[in-house]
Amino acid sequence: MRDRFWRTGPAALTLAFAACGGSTSGGTGGGGASPSIAQSAVVREPLASVSQAAIAGAVAANNDFAIDLFTHVRADVPADNLLTSPMSASLALTMTYAGAAGTTATQMATALHFGAAAGSITDGQNALSQLFAKRGPDALEAAAQTASDNGGPAPSPDDYQLQVVNSVWGQNAYPWEQPFLDVLARSYGAGVFLEDFAAQPDPARLAINSW
Alpha-carbon distance 135 to 127, whole Å? Predict the structure, then answer.
C-alpha cells in the first residue's frame, strides 16, 4: 500500500487515497493531533436510497477509467506484468469533481469517463463505496457459516478486510463553498481536512502521510 497526495489548483486542494487488503488501522490518526475539518452537518445518504441507474452509471464510468488508465500505464511498461486497481483514485477524484465547474468540470468528466452519469456520479460512487465496505463482513459471515457446516476452524477476521480510504485536504484559509461540503457529507461521509499548505507545506505533507 502506498499513500499518495494529488494537488489540484494553487495549493487549495489535495487528495489522499489508498486501498488496503488485510488488517489495517482506521481513523485519522498517526499518533498526532487530529486535523481541523470543514464539514457539513448533512447526513450521508444510505445505500438503499441510491437508484440502480446511478450505481450502474458509476460502475460503467469506473470500468472505462480503469481500462483507459491501464492502457496508458501499459504503454510505459510493455514487457512487465502489470496490475492496477484505480477504484480509490476514481472515488477521490469524484470527490473533487463535486467542486469543479466550467472547463475543469468538463475535462474531469471526460478523463473519468462519466458520460451521461455525470449528474448522478457522486450518488453512484457513494453506493459503491458502501457496497465495498460490506464485502469483508459479508465474506467473513459466509466463510464462518461454511466452517460451521463442515466442522472446520473459524475464519480469522483479519483475512476478510477491505478498506478504501480517501480524504480531501484544503488550505485552511480557503472559503469552502457549502454546496461542495454538502456533497462530501451526503455522498462520502467526509469533509475537508484543513492545513496551511501555503506557509507550512512540510507539516501539511507530514499530516497527510500520517493520516
Answer: 13
